[in-house]
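As a warm-up, study this chain.
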Amino acid sequence: MEDTDKELYFVSKINEKDQSVEVESLLFGNTFVIKHDPGFYEFAKGTVDMESEDDEPLFFTVDFDINGKPMNYGKH
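Now compare it with the structure written out below.
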C-alpha cells in the first residue's frame, strides 16, 4: 500500500486534564477522540508545539487497531 493512500490527520483539540486528544481527518473531516494513551498524547502535544512556528497544522498518519487505539503514527 502506498503512503498516498494513507489518510492524514491533525490535532484539533487537546484536553490536558484527562490527556485526551481529538484528531480530525483532513480528507473526510471525521473526528476521533483518543483517551488513555500517554504515548499518543505526548506525540500530539509535540505536533501542536511545532505548529506554533507557522500557521499550518502539522499533518500526520495514524493506523487504528480494531479497538480504535492508535498505532504506527508519525509525521507525514
